[in-house]
Amino acid sequence: AGSLRGLLRKGCRLLQLPLAGSRLCLYEDGTELTESYFRALPPQTELVLLGPGESWRGCASDIERLLAAFCSQQGAVVEAARRLLTDERAPHRQKLLADLIHNLSENILAEDKEDDKKWFEGLESRFKNKSSYLRHSCESRMRGYMREVTGFISNVHPSARDAYRAIIDLMADKLKSGKYNGCYFDRREKEEAARLCTAEGWFSCQVP
């Protein structure tokens, strides 16, 4: 289909759903599609057609109970995830479960290098704990974004380049004053609202 509306119409006709109130979302995380989002999707993206009143939270919702039991029943969680991975044929769900098993099998709560040497393999010796490395990683990513934004200036119309540079300068100053938002990835950050992860280091999907 060449448009979201066209695909929605075809899907409703095929599944005998009413067009009014029906909508399409991503299979992976349940993000509801807009026309512009639909046009930007890569080929072979898996979608879910929802009828009026139906909801879909994404394939990750199938393993929420595993995450909820993590702290108290880690061994049981890993075994349950392995069984589900064996039985489940959906490739996206398999990847999520494989990642979950890998993460739960690691010594996640350990912070210092001496307590989890395997985690630090391949990293520079200056990093003595996980939070310092993740903070550095976030700062590096922010600097990379700024380089991309700065490099885009050649695509800006000449009449708008001065204003674009001024905006870039403001953004750069803001990032520098906030130490490039390294706190986003630092699970030891005391201010909960300043980080994107939990105190254990888990990240959750940030889309609506």
Automatic annotation (TrEMBL):
GO terms for biological process: apoptotic DNA fragmentation. This is DFFB factor. It comes from Passerina amoena (Lazuli bunting). Pfam families: CIDE-N, DFF40. Keywords: Apoptosis. GO terms for cellular component: cytoplasm; nucleus. The gene is Dffb. The lineage of its organism: Eukaryota, Metazoa, Chordata, Craniata, Vertebrata. InterPro entries: CIDE-N_dom (IPR003508), DFF40 (IPR039729), DFF40_C (IPR015311), His-Me_finger_sf (IPR044925). PANTHER family: CASPASE-ACTIVATED DNASE. Residues 1-58 form the CIDE-N domain. Gene3D superfamilies: 3.10.20.10, 6.10.140.170. Signal peptide: none annotated. GO terms for molecular function: DNA endonuclease activity; hydrolase activity.
